[in-house]
Amino acid sequence: MEVSEAYNVSAVNISEKHERRGATKHCAYGLCKSDSRYMDRQGMEGVFFIRFPQFHREPEKCTRWANACRRENFTALSLQKFVRSRKRPLVRKNLTWSPEPKRKKSDLGNIDIAQTEAASATSTEDHPIAKLNLDTVQAAEALLMLQNSESEEVNIVSDGRKGLDIQDPNSMLKNSCDEETQTSSCCLTLNEFLALKLENFDLKSKIFELEKKSTQSKSFSIADVKDDDKKMIFYTGLTYGQFMCLWKFLGPATRNLSRINNMRKFELTPSKSRGPKRKLSPEDELFLTLVRLRLGLLHTDLAYRFGVSVSTVNEITSTWIQFLYLQFNRLRNAMFPSRKIISKHLPKSFRKYKKVRVILDATKFFTQVPRNYEQQGNLYSSYKNHCTCKVLIGITPSGAISFVSDVYEGSISDKEIFKKSKIMDKINPGDLVMVDRGFNVRDILLQKGADIVIPPFLGNRTNLSPQEEAQTRVIAKLRIHVERVIERIKKYKICKKIVPLNTLSTFSQTVFIVACLVNFQKPIVK
User: Fold this and answer.
1) What pLDDT score does 187 carry?
2) Per CATH, which fold does 339-519 belong to?
């Protein structure tokens, strides 16, 4: 039966402070004659009557309870004559039969009443049931389970005079043990059998709770993958050591971040608590944000993985992306190193071009197609045959990303994005800028005393000279590093998705953050 069926109509011992008086109550179990009018009689101290479920609300449960009472001519419709209590009682851990010392043995079939009463009189301290930490519902549940087990496992002893079917639990246990083990040493008394039933029920409840916790409370965290570099790179693009370098770079502010939607409330009432304790630690919040950038998972998926709500995932990612951008943006000027620092770490392959300050290339990201035809024309790229946005990327000869422009419309030319990106503010006289053929910006650089390294043009000729072909191969071999860096950026799937139009204004921040995260990886050029 269900646990809620613990409201069996039987007399149960409780403390005196829970005793209730009012309308007359009668016990409906078996041949018990307990009556609330005679509470002063011997054996009636602390007796409480538990009500039946109402027939018009729960007819099936009420009928099962009536049948479990095994009372002659007693059905669910007879319940109006019996107990009704409005308050759920607090019950002791031991169950007792209502004492009837003058009742004959034949009245209860083959049950030995003297033995039952003696077992009931045993103190709760020495009784095995008293050792079980169970509440009212579990105790009454066990009593009903006992009745069900009797009806299924043993033959019913019939009283011919009254037509009442009652069983002897002790004889049932003895017969069962004799049949299965062929020994009488395993026979149990009624109280021992009831204690085992209660203990079995308690253990099943604990198993159910543990299984529930194991399936629901387990959530994804950095602790699950930090010992495996392959998994860390898959989920974040960084090894655990690189992740910790990033964590230390972000500084102590990570411990005191106020989420975006709660920031205003926190500023208005800084002395008050900012709400309930957060489920994720700051490290796991950063880990969640990196997983979002690396794998491009939806907020619903992340909420399920990390065991939080979708709105919480949205707050975490928005807050941490803004925080990462602010921290990285402070180094935007320092990311573009001087020629002296570049010369100190110049790879051997660049010995012929020692004055190269930056290697430039542009990359595009797909966007949604706008309804406005003018905006659609500005975003459309004939090379990609799709609406795109464009970003200028610059790296040092050693392969570190040193420059990331804002996002521009996809139809912009390479020369135009070179002008608008304001990279000329970082170029000094005597610097060399290595570019592809599309960046024909020599005239702009010459105005500042700099020059470009660009593959030679064919022009009106049919073939390049041998020296020009050799120069083209050398430049292409060196320029390939910027394309490899761009490939690393696009491994973050947040950049490979189609960019919604309403997020174009913040997509520049996302690309810049991803570029800075790539700098935490192993260098491209050795």
Assistant:
1) 53
2) Nucleotidyltransferase; domain 5 (3.30.420)
